[in-house]
Design goal:
This protein is of the alpha/beta class. It has 2 domains: 68 residues, Signal recognition particle alu RNA binding heterodimer, srp9/1 (2-Layer Sandwich), CATH 3.30.720; 59 residues, no CATH class. Helices cover 26% and strands 26% of the residues. Strands 1-4-3-2 form a 4-stranded mixed beta sheet, covered by helices on one side. Strand 7 and strand 8 form a beta hairpin. The protein starts with 5 loop residues before the first strand and ends with a strand.
Length: 145
């Protein structure tokens, strides 16, 4: 039996990360449960104090196809390079200059959302198509591929 996958991110500001990744992937921040207009309304009704409202958040694929991304607050900061990272497929099927121009345009969009550009890897056919290494607002690395 196949299993659904959820990708979990640790961070200091889960709500901000959920909003960032929703914009990156065309996802949406997970809506509050039925009967509540907002998450703060739901959390308050459940007795969660305001200072704990940003302990967790999630981003979901509106079409229900991609994995749920879950963001949880942790007390410690990032201490080392990611051992696993996401590749955001911004230029599938493209090669050479067209590929890199598409990746550069997406990189500019994501920098405007709060990402940091770290490194451009030039194409080196036949094995390396070229990519851009980036970090989200909390330093989690990912690639534009």
């Amino acid at each position: 039996m196949a299993r659904a996958v959820q990708v979990t991110f640790d961070g200091a500001a889960p709500g901000r990360l959920a909003e960032f990744w929703a914009e990156v992937l065309g996802y949406q921040v997970q809506p509050p449960p039925p009967g509540f207009a907002t998450w703060p309304e739901a959390l308050t009704a459940w007795g969660i104090p305001p200072e704990r409202h940003d302990e967790a958040s999630a981003a979901v694929d509106p079409d229900g196809e991609g994995p749920r991304l879950f963001f949880q607050r942790v007390p410690e900061g990032r201490t080392a390079k990611n051992r696993v990272h996401l590749d955001v497929r911004a230029a599938p099927g493209l090669t050479g200059d067209e590929r890199m121009a598409t990746l550069e345009a997406e990189c500019d969009r994501l920098v405007a959302l709060g990402a940091t550009r770290l490194l451009r890897v030039e194409p080196d056919p036949p094995l390396v198509g070229g990519n851009i290494v980036m970090a989200d607002p909390e330093g989690n690395e990912f690639c534009l591929d």
